[in-house]
């Protein structure tokens, strides 16, 4: 199958986004969804760290939006591929139906010629009037019955072929429309991703400048793991494996778009940890909370539950008990243990 031009656009846009390691963005418009509130810095931290974390938190929100756009792009490419396959199949079926229609029409034309063009109406009455013995009449009548049956079969075949040809034409038209819709949507998504990336790139210098203004104590606060690794008892084998995996990455750097095993973004850490437990999670924080598993209330949280924050959900962590979670906060930070953040949005208990 020939590749479509949009595939090259899609691949280029996705590859460009995949290499992002440090991003930020301009101040969001007033109509946009609330940006993630930054982590509360330690009491002895500076205003520079507070500002840095604010910028980083907003960048994490954009990171999740980019990841969702990438997922949407893959889905649209899948729709395009299926629609293209359906179009080819419908065209093949239509061509075969056209051949059958031509074949069966020829057979019907033969019967029509035998019955009418010769001026002789072949039926049982004409056979009787032709004379002969009773046995001869029965034999001729039987032969005419066979001819009549064959004619009906030929007419039925022709009718079926005509119907199949019409259905194939309709299916091909529908598939072509679906392909065009998917192609247009994929092209728009690719363009949106590229635009978002350019916007993020234009803000990288500001984030780097803020990083340069951090003091040694601020940088130490960024590397704080939230205490030593606790002994967490999860309610099930899968949850225990996921908790153990997430806690094993305490101190690992946060990197936008990273899914491990050495660096992570927030949803990348959750996806990687549950993969170690044999459970597949979607890529984005919002999708991880929304799809699969069992939604649980805050007062029913158990170790291993995924906890999401903000609306729409743009940050996620794993509950480990005692009001705490393990998570990958934002750029410049590391995987750590923290209290549950404000703007709690909900929780999901993944299931195998």
UniProtKB/TrEMBL annotation:
<protein>
    <submittedName>
        <fullName>C40 family peptidase</fullName>
    </submittedName>
</protein>
<dbReference type="InterPro" id="IPR051794">
    <property type="entry name" value="PG_Endopeptidase_C40"/>
</dbReference>
<keyword id="KW-0732">Signal</keyword>
<dbReference type="InterPro" id="IPR038765">
    <property type="entry name" value="Papain-like_cys_pep_sf"/>
</dbReference>
<comment type="similarity">
    <text>Belongs to the peptidase C40 family.</text>
</comment>
<keyword id="KW-0378">Hydrolase</keyword>
<keyword id="KW-0645">Protease</keyword>
<feature type="domain" description="NlpC/P60">
    <location>
        <begin position="236"/>
        <end position="352"/>
    </location>
</feature>
<keyword id="KW-0788">Thiol protease</keyword>
<feature type="signal peptide">
    <location>
        <begin position="1"/>
        <end position="32"/>
    </location>
</feature>
<feature type="region of interest" description="Disordered">
    <location>
        <begin position="31"/>
        <end position="50"/>
    </location>
</feature>
<dbReference type="InterPro" id="IPR000064">
    <property type="entry name" value="NLP_P60_dom"/>
</dbReference>
<feature type="region of interest" description="Disordered">
    <location>
        <begin position="204"/>
        <end position="235"/>
    </location>
</feature>
<feature type="region of interest" description="Disordered">
    <location>
        <begin position="79"/>
        <end position="98"/>
    </location>
</feature>
<dbReference type="Pfam" id="PF00877">
    <property type="entry name" value="NLPC_P60"/>
</dbReference>
């Amino acid at each position: 199958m020939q590749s479509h031009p949009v595939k090259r656009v899609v691949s280029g846009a996705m590859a460009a986004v995949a290499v992002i390691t440090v991003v930020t963005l301009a101040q969001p418009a007033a109509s946009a969804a609330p940006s993630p509130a930054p982590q509360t810095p330690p009491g002895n931290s500076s205003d520079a760290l507070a500002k840095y974390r604010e910028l980083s938190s907003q960048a994490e929100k954009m990171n999740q939006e980019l990841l969702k756009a990438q997922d949407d792009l893959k889905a649209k490419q899948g729709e395009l591929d299926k629609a293209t396959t359906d179009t080819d199949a419908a065209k093949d079926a239509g061509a075969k139906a056209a051949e059958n229609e031509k074949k069966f029409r020829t057979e019907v034309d033969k019967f029509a010629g035998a019955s009418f063009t010769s001026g002789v109406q072949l039926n049982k009455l004409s056979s009787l009037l032709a004379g002969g013995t009773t046995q001869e009449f029965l034999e001729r009548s039987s032969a005419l019955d066979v001819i009549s049956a064959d004619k009906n079969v030929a007419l039925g075949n022709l009718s079926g072929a005509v119907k199949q040809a019409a259905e194939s034409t309709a299916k091909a038209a529908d598939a072509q429309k679906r392909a065009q819709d998917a192609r247009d949507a994929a092209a728009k998504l690719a363009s949106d991703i590229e635009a978002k990336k350019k916007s993020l790139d234009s803000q990288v210098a500001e984030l780097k400048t803020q990083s340069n203004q951090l003091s040694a104590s601020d940088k130490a606060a960024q590397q704080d793991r939230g205490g030593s690794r606790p002994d967490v008892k999860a309610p099930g084998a899968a949850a225990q494996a996921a908790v153990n995996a997430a806690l094993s990455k305490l101190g690992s750097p946060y990197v936008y778009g990273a899914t491990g095993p050495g660096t992570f973004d927030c949803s990348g850490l959750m996806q990687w940890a549950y993969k170690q437990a044999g459970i597949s999670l979607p890529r984005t924080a919002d999708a991880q909370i929304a799809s699969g598993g069992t939604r649980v209330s805050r007062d029913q949280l158990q170790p291993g539950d995924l906890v999401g924050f903000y609306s729409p959900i743009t940050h996620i962590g794993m509950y480990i008990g005692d009001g705490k979670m393990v998570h990958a906060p934002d750029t410049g930070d590391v995987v750590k243990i923290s209290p549950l953040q404000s703007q709690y949005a909900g929780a999901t208990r993944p299931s195998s």
